[in-house]
Amino acid sequence: STVPVEKRSFKIPPIQQAQEKKERAREKSREKAKLKALKARLEKMIAQNPLLKKFEKQILIDITPEGLRIQIVDEKNRPMFALGSAVIKPYMMEILHEIGKVLNEVPNKLSISGHTDATHYSGGQKGYSNWELSTDRANASRRELIRGGMAESKVLRVVGLASAVPFDPKNPFNPVNRRITLIVLNKQTEERIMQESAQPSVTDVPSLAEQDGRPFTENAPPPAPVAAH
Fold first, then answer.
1. pLDDT in tens, 44-93
2. What is the pLDDT of residue 51?
3. What is the mean pLDDT of the chain?
4. Rounded to an integer, what distance in angstroms lies between the CA atom of residue 47 and that of residue 218?
5. Which residue in 189, 187, 192 sits closest to 30, CA to CA?
6. What is the distance, to the nearest Å, from the Cα of residue 85 to the centroid of all Cα atoms in its chain?
7. Percentages (nearest 5) of helix, strand, coil residues in the chain
8. Helix segments in 49-186, DSSP class H
């Protein structure tokens, strides 16, 4: 017979825990400083570039819990894309090209999301909605950032959110709700996204019977649904 092996849990000493906590705080502070410096760099570039200067009211930059957010919004008479399509206007291409060059200055990954207003898509193509349109616009923006010189490997996520997250919730039809959002992700958000993407699929999740060690029977309850990411 085999002799049972005593399992020992390894505990990190309190002093080491405190040191690691301080180091994480220092790293977070350093990263925030880098993102603030990038924000200043972008704002200076926009102010000094004659082309971008004309569109500075449409380029909104701020720091959020996820990282540095750059929003390029529509104006009523100055849309970023052709009506109802993902064809980018020439001036929007130039904006993305210039921004793409600067984003290479930091190692952080990038999230790109497309947004529409609440106007129902009427392009005529069956099954094509604002969800597909916003996704196609986000992906078109990704291509232009790369064409402008940004490393392709910087992109971590490209999503279309249709009108689900309006810039102006009080007026869902406001043109400013049509926008492209770029987020230079901080390390914490990047790790969270990576963890979400690594979650097991439905086929990887054992049934409830298997989880508690009982053989599966037809009378056993089905496994709980797993949210898709």
1. 999 999 989 989 999 999 999 999 999 999 987 789 999 889 999 999 99
2. 85
3. 83
4. 68
5. 187
6. 22
7. 45, 15, 40
8. 50-53, 90-103, 130-147
pLDDT of residue 76: 78
Per the CB < 8 A criterion, the answer to whether 179 and 69 are in contact is no
Say which residue, 184 or 204, is predicted with more confidence.
184
Q: How far is CA 76 from the centre of its chain?
A: 26
Rounded to whole angstroms, the Cα distance separating 164 from 131 reads 9
* Residue 137: closest CA among 114, 105, 167, 164: 114
d(C-alpha 121, C-alpha 129), whole Å: 6
pTM above 0.90, yes or no: no
The single residue listed with the structure tokens 């984003």 is 103
- Summarize pLDDT for 126-179 with one digit per residue, the tens: 678 999 999 999 999 999 999 999 999 999 999 999 999 999 999 999 999 999
Q: How confident is the model at residue 210 (pLDDT cuts 50, 70, 90)?
A: very low
Cβ atoms of 78 and 58 closer than 8 Å: yes
- 166: tokens are 């309006």
Choose among 111, 94, 119: nearest CA to 178. Answer: 119
Q: What is the CA radius of gyration of the chain?
A: 23
**What are the structure tokens assigned to 74, written together?**
């529509």
Angle at 48 between CA 104 and CA 167, to 5 degrees: 70
Strands of 18-137, DSSP E: 59-64, 67-73, 110-115
d(CA 67, CA 106): 12
Gap between the terminal Cα atoms of the chain: 46
